[in-house]
Amino acid sequence: MESKVEPREESGPDFLKRLKRLGPGLSTRPGRVGRLVGRAQRGHNRRMLEKRGSEAAPPGVWWWQDSRQDYSPLEGDVAADVVIVGAGITGITLAHTLAVGGASVIVLEAGRVAGSASGRNAGFLLAAPAEPYGEAVAMWGRAGARAMLEIGRRTHERVHELVETLGIECEYRRTGSVRLARTEEEAEDQRASLPLMRADGFPVTEVPVATVMPGGPHERFDAAFVTDEDGEFHPVRFVHGLARVCEGRGVRLHAHSEVEAAHWGGSEWEARTARGVARARTLVIATNAYAPGLCPALAPLIAPRRAQMLFTARLEREVVTRPTCAHWGYQYWRQTPQGRLLIGGWRDLDLDGEAGFGEGPTSTIQNGLESGLRELVPEGVEIEGRWAGIMGFARDGRPLVGWLDAEHHLAIAAGYTGHGIGMAAACTQDLALLLAFRPAPGIATFDPARFPELRRPESSLTSLGASAPRTP
Ligand SMILES: Cc1cc2nc3c(=O)[nH]c(=O)nc-3n(C[C@H](O)[C@H](O)[C@H](O)COP(=O)(O)OP(=O)(O)OC[C@H]3O[C@@H](n4cnc5c(N)ncnc54)[C@H](O)[C@@H]3O)c2cc1C
């Protein structure tokens, strides 16, 4: 395991292929455009958070129908060891780990707990991202790619452990997962990755397509690959279940409490919301796509990307046996224990349109999702809801987890590039080690300092949000 990040050359055909898949707007140089994006993004963040803060629950998001627990806003002046900004799966798993370790914790959330991507995702717990492993090796080197697999495996183990030991009811199942190839080229790319994955301790097996699609349509796919260790769960129930445990352990959790600005006063952070102030020696940014809103230096490194889903009424028959990805991971679906089909992705139909903070579903992508549904359920089934959520895509495809400042008062866990459900719980377990000034080799390759712009002395971070320095 590498303990030090080697900055990689961001070039070459594999990197470009992968960047094309990630979508537009990930400028590799901050420059003037990056700064303007940062400014525009802060405005977007604010408008979006204001809008969401007043909503009772995200409309049309099926996950929310049975998890409407809410938390009161921060009032007054409070203090703790750590302030966490953001109450998605990152903020809540970190709060729990820190509280178990004996730290006092305040979590401040602009909208609702799990109201953003953590409450709008597909609930896949994948150890390996759906893209061929060979691409990951080409981009990040063997050790870097293996670190991604290992964090995925550890996240699943961590989620399983939390579900079991804390009794969180969240429909968790270790089902395994399937990757389907729509073309021979994709099948060959996946096949070429199998020996690499096996050698790195993550066996994936090619199986006949018909065995993983008992209800058809097998003829649409060239090959199928199965991983037995993956799983699925109900993300809102998981995050809310853990949030309740956090409360029981003394974590002070405040929703509808956007951190508008934060300032390091020499011995502590002072994080300001509309009606309160939270103080702590350590502040953690757990806001994923919205991280540049607080810290403009991150604007060239984490970009907002929309992902969309739809869900159907219950189906009597089993359409798919396991969480399934196809078409290089752009398309994904699974059937819940109640028989509903959840279908997401098809972002590649409009990569430009899916960049930014707009949270509404669009006809282009929803038409794509419906074409996938027709393929899977040709007899037809009612669509009961549609939604979209915003993901944070990191410039090199790997999350940023670790200290943001040289003085070690400010940390981050964000930029999961569409895989945060399968990565956050282990990332935050390791981040808690770093916050206690202990080594955390599992996240060494996610160190934000791999990006040169975060190593510049002028980016010393003592003000966030409205009070953050503005580039001229
Ligand atoms: C449709 C869709 C499907 C997906 N499917 C999967 C999947 O199956 N598997 C997988 O691994 N990943 C999936 N993802 C990605 C995954 O959901 C995210 O990577 C993950 O939820 C990120 O969690 P988070 O807690 O870091 O961020 P978020 O869930 O985005 O939480 C960040 C929180 O910070 C809050 N916030 C922002 N700014 C402030 C501020 N200034 N003050 C206070 N609070 C603030 C926001 O309101 C938000 O609640 C999917 C995403 C989408 C949209």
Which descriptors apply to this entry?
six-stranded mixed beta sheet, alpha/beta, disordered N terminus, binds flavin-adenine dinucleotide, FAD/NAD(P)-binding domain, 472 residues, 21% strand, 21 strands
Description of the structure:
With 472 residues, this protein is α/β, with parallel strands linked by helices. The protein has a domain at 13-121 and 236-302 and 395-465: FAD/NAD(P)-binding domain (3-Layer(bba) Sandwich), CATH 3.50.50. Helices cover 30% and strands 21% of the residues. It contains ten helices and 21 strands. The chain has helices spanning 13-22, 31-53, 89-100, 133-166, 184-199, 209-212, 235-248, 291-294, 363-376, 424-435; strands at residues 76-79, 82-85, 105-108, 124-125, 177-181, 205-207, 223-227, 231-232, 252-254, 261-264, 269-272, 276-280, 282-285, 302-312, 324-326, 331-335, 341-345, 383-394, 400-403, 410-414, 463-465. The strands form four sheets. An eight-stranded mixed β-sheet has the order 6-7-5-15-16-17-14-18. It has a six-stranded mixed β-sheet with strand order 9-3-2-13-20-19, covered by helices on one side. A five-stranded mixed β-sheet has the order 1-12-11-10-21, with no helix packed on it. β11 and β12 form a beta hairpin. α3 (89-100) packs parallel to α7 (235-248), α3 (89-100) packs across α10 (424-435) and α4 packs across α10 (424-435). The longest helix is centred in the first third of the chain and has 34 residues, at 133-166. Mean pLDDT is 87; it is low at 1-16 and 24-57. It binds flavin-adenine dinucleotide. Flavin-adenine dinucleotide (FAD) binds next to α3, α8, β14 and β18.
